[in-house]
Amino acid sequence: MTQSFSRMDQSTTEQWMEIGRQTFGNQPRVAEKVLGMLRELASITDGFAVDQLVHALQTATRAERAGADEQVIVAALCHDIGKLISVANHPAIAAEILKPYVREEVYWMILVHQDFQGKHYYELLGKDPDARQKYAGHAAFDLAAKFADDWDQTAFDPDYESFPLEHFEPMVRRVFAQPSSY
Questions:
Q1: Averaged pLDDT, 114-136
Q2: Domain 16-172 homologous superfamily, CATH
Q3: Staple 100 to which of 43, 50, 166, 179, CB 3.0 to 4.6 Å?
Q4: Which residues contact 23 (CB under 8 A, 6 or more apart)?
Q5: CB 121: neighbour CB atoms within 10 A?
Q6: What is the mean pLDDT of the chain?
Q7: Residue 28 CA: distances (Å) to CA of 101, 125, 173, 178
Q8: In the predicted model, what is the mean pLDDT of residues 96-110?
Q9: Cα separation of 57 and 74, whole Å?
Q10: Where are the domains of the chain?
Q11: pLDDT tops 80 at residue 1
Q12: With a threshold of 0.85, does the pTM exceed it?
């Protein structure tokens, strides 16, 4: 049932209960939208040896093979999803998409991954390769370093055998099944 109010300040509790019921019932669309966005990453190469979907699959595969938990694996898969909207701001976009569905440390790992990955290339661009040090002491520092050093920056290999997106689809559906902040 569609609600009849045209202004939120004229709505009722009953109307919001119905909106909540419908929103909860439609929650699976979130995972399907994320999977669609991941598929769209195949259209972005930007000079790399592999497209961004292959990069995402390699990153997630490396995380899974290293024994990471499901939230970290899905975050690894989605870490560059923001490049569909803004390459310059992609870590923040991806992190905010993930935020309601993952632990704080996993959210933060994605939010700061660019500066952590910068250890491997920032100097080539005249930037500080030690940019990650401004986060020293953060509880998730080691997780972000592992993500950047072991999984993300190594995931541009056209010969690497990664799992296909279909392998990760059930994980994506589970992680995005219900926001923890609801």
A1: 96
A2: Hypothetical protein af1432 (1.10.3210.10)
A3: 179
A4: none
A5: 11
A6: 95
A7: 13, 41, 7, 9
A8: 97
A9: 10
A10: 16-172
A11: no
A12: yes
